[in-house]
């Protein structure tokens, strides 16, 4: 069964302590990731795409797919009219799969969570599905995404409840109070993989950079 196959890598990725461990786990998983996630009914890319398309006009460019993985979202952004999308991921293996989709204008093997080598205001929009979750990236990854997204631009991300309740919600409120972002949309909590045993919900957020 598909979910018993992929409970291993995902559970291990959630429990990973160091970024290099996360990268190694995803490197190993990269070739079967798309099929496994499809079998698990993976929802984050669809939710993120819906939020982005509701708030960012067709053709807005360039976009950054932050934690792009194998590029599930890149394909759909391409189909729905966002012509220039760059991929960033910590895993070379995942990025190699993303490259094969032939839709990204650049691929960056980098870690979210620290300083990023991009100019201020570089992107019209940023999309990050399934990345702000246990063992991956926490609220410390937000500041740089805000810095590299231009004023008026949109950041769409999913946040797992475990993080949300452990300081992420407070950090979003703080950034709003500082006038750096406006929370333009927040979904109700939903389970990202109905075919999985991990049922901790996540939520989708759309933030406008001010
Ligand atoms: C659950 S996958 C989601 C991939 C893709 N966004 C999707 O929805 O299919 C999480 C991705 O985040 C990447 N990742 C984990 N920690 C990261 C970090 N610190 N910096 C950049 N990417 C990271 C992993 O390599 C993996 O590709």
Automatic annotation (TrEMBL):
Q: Which SUPFAM superfamilies match?
A: S-adenosyl-L-methionine-dependent methyltransferases (SSF53335)
The Methyltransferase type domain extends over: 64-157
Q: Which molecular-function annotations from GO does this UniProt entry contain?
A: S-adenosylmethionine-dependent methyltransferase activity
At the top level of its lineage, which domain of life is listed?
Bacteria
Query: Which key words are in the record?
Result: Methyltransferase, Transferase
Protein name per UniProt: Putative TPR repeat methyltransferase
Q: Which InterPro entries match?
A: Methyltransf_11 (IPR013216), SAM-dependent_MTases_sf (IPR029063)
GO biological process, alphabetically ordered: methylation
